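Q: I have two molecules that I believe assemble together. Could you output C-alpha cells for the complex as a whole instead of separate predictions?
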Amino acid sequence: MKLSVPKALAVKHSVFEKQVLANFAVSDEVRSVLPESGLVRGRIVRCCGDAAISLALSLCARASQQGSWLGVVGVEHLGISCAVEHGIALERVVFVHPPEASRDWSTTVAAAIDGFDLLIVAVPERLSIADARRVQARLASRRSVMIIVDTAVLSQNSFANNSHPFCADLLLDTKTKNWSGTNNGAGFLQHRQIEIKVSGRRVAREQRHLLTCSH
Amino acid sequence: MAAKTNNSACAVVHSQRVVSRSVQAKKFGVEVGMRRRQAQALCPDIEISSFQPDRDRRAFNTVVQAVSEIVPLIEVGEPGVIVFAARGPSRYFGGDAPMAEKLMQTLRSSIMTDSQFGVGVADGRLAAHISAHISAQTQTPFLVEPERTKPWLAGQSVRVLGEFAGIDRETISLLERLGLNLLQDVCKLGESVLAGRFGELGVELHRLARGDEQHPLAVVAPPPEQLCSRAFEEPIVDRQTLLNNVQTMADELSRYFAEHGAICVRLILVFASETGERCERLWYRPQGLTTASIVESAKWQIESWQIKAPISGLQLVADEVRTDTARQLKLWGGATQSDETAAQAVGRLTELLGSNSVQVVKWQGGRDLQDAYQFVSVLHSQGAHSEQVATQQKKFLAQSPQRPKSWRGSLPTPSPGVVFADPPEVRVVDKNQNLLGVSARHELSAEPAYLLMGRTKHKIVSWAGPWPIEEKWWDIARSRRLVRLQLVVEKSASPPDGSVAESSEVQAMLVALEHGQWSIVAIYG
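A: Yes, here they are, computed for all two components at once.
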C-alpha cells in the first residue's frame, strides 16, 4: 500500500525538522560576532589569530553544556583548564590524535564527524584539497560544526591566507589589542580587548567587532 | 598485580590511591584504597609504580602460560589473578593438595624473579581469592574444604570485600562503624534489611557474605552455531584481519544477547591453527563482556600464544550468561541519542587509531598547568566498555575528587589556552640586555624589558609575577624549582635599532625560568 502524504503536512514536517536541527546556541559574549547569532549546522568556522583557541572554546561552550559532544582532533596544546573556565563540559570531550598523512587524517576526521556534534580541529599542513572537500561534504551531510583553529605563535603563521585547503564559511580573525590587569610586576592578567574580523564565504561584507572578555 | 613480582614492599598507585600492593607492603599495613601519602607514611621505603594495565598484562603472560600448561581451561579476569574450576584438574592429580603443590612447583620454576604468589582452593570465587592471598604469605598452598568454606568465610573481616570484591571503601568503613566487623555479622542481618539500607549494593553485600556465586545462570537459548564459530577456508596470517573477524563475531554475539535481554559474563575464546594446534582461554568480566572487551581479550590471547602458523578457525563460546540488570540504568541514567552516536564514534576511532590516540581527560590537581589534568586512554577509563561512554565517563569524573575552585599556588584565572608540552626556549632580558635571574627569595634581578626568541626581539609591554613553584625539595631526583611570569609582549618584532615600532597588537604569555633557562610555557591564545 502506498501512503500519500498531504502536501501541507509534508511542508510542515520539513519545517519541523529544520527547527529540530536548529543552530547550536552560543554564549552571549560571542553571539554578537556571529552573523546568524549561533553556530549553523554543517558549516566550517575557522578561527585564526592569537585568540583562536579561546574563541573556539567559547563558541563551543554553550552547546557542550546542553549535551553536545565535542571532539578535539589534532589540537596538541589545548589548555584544559582554559576549556573548563569557558564552561566546556569535560565529560563530553574526546581528544583524538590523528595521523599526519593526508588520507588518514581525513578518514579520522570523517569518523569524528559521524559521532560528535562539534569539532575543534587543527589542519595538518600537507592536507590535499580533494581530501578537504570530502571532509567538507561529510560535514554538510552529518550536520555537525567544525571549528578550525590556526594557532599562530607570535609572528609565525602556518598558512598563508589563500592556500588553506578548507574553504571556511565563516572566518574569524582575532587580534589582541591589549591586556589589562598587569602593572609592572603587580596584579595578573584579567581582561583583554580583542578585535575580531568576520569574513568568509557566507558573509556578505567584512565586519569588525571589538570585544572585551575575560578569557 | 605486577607489583607482586618482586620481594620488596611495593604498590601500584592510580590517581593517588593504592590499587594493588605486594604481600611485603601488606605487612606494613598498606591496604588497597589507601592514599599514597598514607602508604608512604606506613612504609617509607615503599616502591610506587604507576598504573599501566598493558604492562601488567605483559608481565603476567608468563604466569598465564605456565598455569595453562597444567590446567587447560583457566579464567583470567584481571592481570594478577587466575581462577579455574579445580574439580577436574584435582581429580587428575589425585586431590586438591597434590594439584596445588604441583601448581606451586611449576610457578616457582617458570617465574624468574622471586615473586610471591599463592595457590588457594576453596568453594567460590571470593573464598578462593582470599585463600590464595593467605597462601602467598605463607608460600604454601592453602586449602579450604568445600563443606567448610562457608563457616570459614563467615569468620573473615568485612575488609576482604573491599580488597577482593571491589566494594568501595566508604561502604566498608560504614559497615565497620555499624559494628559489622565480620562477614557473619553482615550475613546475620538478613538480605531485606541490607537491601533497605543500601539498595542493590546491599543485596550484593549479602550475597558475598554468604559466599554464593555472583550471578544465577539465566535461561537463554545458546546462540545459533553460525554466530559462535567461524572456519576460514583461507587461513589468516595477518593479526589485524583476525581481530576484525573477532570484532564482527563479537558484535553479532552481543547483539544476540542484547535482543534476549542478557549479557555474557564468561566467554571461551578458541583459536585453532592450520597445523592443528588450539588455544583456548576463558574470559570473565562480572559486568558483562562487550564487543570492545572481547576484542581486547582476543588481542591479548593471540599475542600470548606466539604462534606463527596461520589461524584457520575461531570460536566464541558463551559459557555463562545472565540477565542484564545494568541496562535498567538507562531508564533514569539517561544516555541520549548524541551520547550513543558519540560512543559509536569513539569505538570506531579506537579501531582506526588504537586506544592510545583517543583520550579523555581527568582532573588530578596540581600547580603546574600540565599537571592539573591528565589524559587517559578511553578504554582504560571505562574498563573497555565502549557502549556506555557517557554514563561511565560521568561516573568516572564523579569518582575523581571534585575540582576545587582554586588550587593553592596555581596561577590566577583566566588560564592560558595554549599549553606547550615541550616549551620553546627563549631569553628574557632587561633593558641592558642582561639575562634575567631570580634570587633565593624569588625576586627578579631586574625588570624584564625584552623577549628574545631566536633572532627576533619582542618588547615587553607589561608583566606580572613571579609565581614561584618549589616542589619536592626533599627529593633531589624529583625536586623542581621554577618561577613563572606573565608577560604581555608586542607581537611584531621590534627593530634592532631601538626605535618604537608602530604596532598595537599584543600577545600575553606565560614564561618560566627553570635551571637557568627561560621558556614559553603557555600562551594566552
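A: One point stands out. The mean pLDDT of chain B is 77.
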